[in-house]
Specification:
About 75% of the residues lie in helices and about 5% in strands. It has about 400 residues and is an all-alpha fold. It starts with a helix and ends in a 5-residue tail after the last helix.
């Protein structure tokens, strides 16, 4: 009974250390209270580990003793290290401050404590290893959510003060120190729309051909490998391609940027379309053909509707990538000078004019940090960009889920 209580105490202490250290790393609150908490927990935990090791066999006790030594080392580090500690290894060219090192020590100690607690609860056997593996998997999922939540929280906290009617409805002035970002929002949406108009028909069409019509296994494999390689090409290379082959023809313009972003999205859309089409059972195709439908009728009325949720997943990824890219468009489509998109009949944009863009605008504001008072507006721009991407993705996910509910096989 005493062993179980000690194991439960170790589990609670490890969880508290992990959660609090992640908060310290992501949100970076003042460390005074957290340091007091960490020192107290580590001291108690080290004592519990030593007491527990006395009850174990030699092999298991050695592991627990080693973990206890690491916990004690973390405790000593937190006790004697000055708050202004800065480690700068000459061969790395990087600096590690106390604000990074202290939470990292608490995080490592928390992981070891949880490992020992699970081993003690389940007797250092196969069951303990299974529970530990599942705990690591669940912890990875929770960690991913916490990191995303931390990033969003920091951007929201720093950027919400910049959001106003003026900020959202006026163009920027005086190198971004005044005005707003309405032309950047407009330009970003037009670039995303143009990119999807280029990539969606080509990508979906290529995926349909490769999966439904092409009968050469060797050709399919070569094309798929080539597409996968294109998917790994850095975005700056696409920007260089656009500068060399498009800007010389159509100039720095909405058209050039849309084509480049569309080409970047093509591999993702083709591959996701192929996977979605492969997931459709062959029995649906055979049943449609048996009822007298042609191959195209089968694809158009049976296969594509069944694969639509998977296809929309690729389009969602494409939208996110097009909205968040900077390198491909900074040489092909955008300008920092505030520009409203001219539209014929109030609808069709002039594709031969340059546009503003949220990502490029944010990049320029970051360049001005320290020289101009633009930090608050930079955070506000980042918040609007994140909100815009989330809104577009949410709309696409709602449409995808709507069609997913109709699938029956």
């Amino acid at each position: 009974m005493a062993t179980d209580k000690r194991s439960e105490a170790l589990t609670a202490a490890g969880a508290i250390l992990l959660l609090s250290s992640l908060i310290a790393l992501l949100i970076q609150p003042p460390l005074q209270i957290l340091l007091l908490l960490w020192r107290s927990l580590l001291a108690v935990v080290a004592l519990i580990l030593i007491l527990q090791a006395l009850r174990l066999n030699t092999r298991n006790a050695a592991v627990v003793y080693l973990d206890a030594l690491i916990v004690i080392a973390a405790e000593i580090f937190l006790l004697i290290s000055p708050p202004d500690l800065l480690i700068s290894p000459s061969n790395l060219g990087a600096s590690f401050s106390y604000r990074l090192l202290a939470p990292s020590a608490a995080f490592i100690a928390g992981v070891l404590i949880l490992k020992d607690a699970i081993n003690m609860l389940y007797g250092f056997g196969a069951k303990a290893r299974e529970v530990l593996a599942f705990t690591l998997i669940r912890g990875s999922a929770v960690l991913a959510v916490l990191i995303l939540g931390g990033i969003f929280s920091v951007i929201l906290y720093n950027g919400i003060g910049a959001i106003s009617v003026e900020f959202l409805t006026e163009p920027h002035r005086n190198l971004g120190q005044e005005g707003g970002i309405v032309t950047c929002i407009e330009g970003t949406m037009w670039l995303v729309l143009g990119a999807m108009l280029v990539s969606a028909p080509l990508g979906i069409g290529a995926g349909i051909y490769l999966n439904e019509y092409s009968r050469s296994h060797t050709l399919n494999r070569m094309i798929t490998i080539s597409i996968s390689c294109l998917n790994g090409v850095p975005s700056v290379v696409y920007g260089l391609f656009g500068l060399a082959f498009l800007v010389s023809t159509v100039g720095i313009s909405l058209l050039a940027g849309s084509v480049i972003l569309g080409l970047m999205n093509l591999p993702t859309i083709i591959l996701t379309t192929q996977e979605a089409l492969r997931a459709v059972p062959d029995s649906l195709r055979e049943g449609s053909v048996a009822l007298g439908a042609t191959k195209w009728q089968t694809i158009l009325r049976i296969v594509i509707p069944s694969a639509l949720p998977g296809i929309l997943t690729g389009l969602i990824i494409g939208v996110s990538r097009a909205a968040g890219e900077t390198a491909p468009i900074m040489w092909t489509a955008v300008t920092f000078t505030p520009v409203y998109v001219n539209k014929a009949y109030g609808i069709v944009p002039d594709v031969y004019q340059p546009v503003n863009n949220l990502c490029y605008h944010l990049l320029q504001l970051i360049y001005f940090l320290g020289a101009w008072d633009v930090e608050k507006r930079a955070w506000g721009t980042a918040l609007v960009l994140m909100g815009l991407v989330l809104a577009m993705n949410s709309l696409a996910i709602i449409v995808r889920n709507h069609y997913r509910k109709k699938i029956r096989w």
